[in-house]
Amino acid sequence: MTPKQNNVYKYIEEYWREFGYGPAIDDIMYGLGYRGRGEVHKILRRLCEMGACKMIPNRARSIRPVYMKFRNIE
Hints:
Elements: H1 3-19, H2 25-32, H3 37-50, E1 53-54, E2 64-65
Antiparallel strand pairs: 1-2
């Protein structure tokens, strides 16, 4: 895992612990100082391909670390 991927992964974990749901791409972008959504999306997609995170397609704020379970989401 690259340092950027690790930072995003840790941000997602902390966001889940604090709020109980996943961050939006904009939340990650502003929280970590990235300049564009595309860069964040590319990192999120790579984290999902690696198996570190899961996400429901076309569902906002569905990114989560693999060890967390979705509740009441189809």
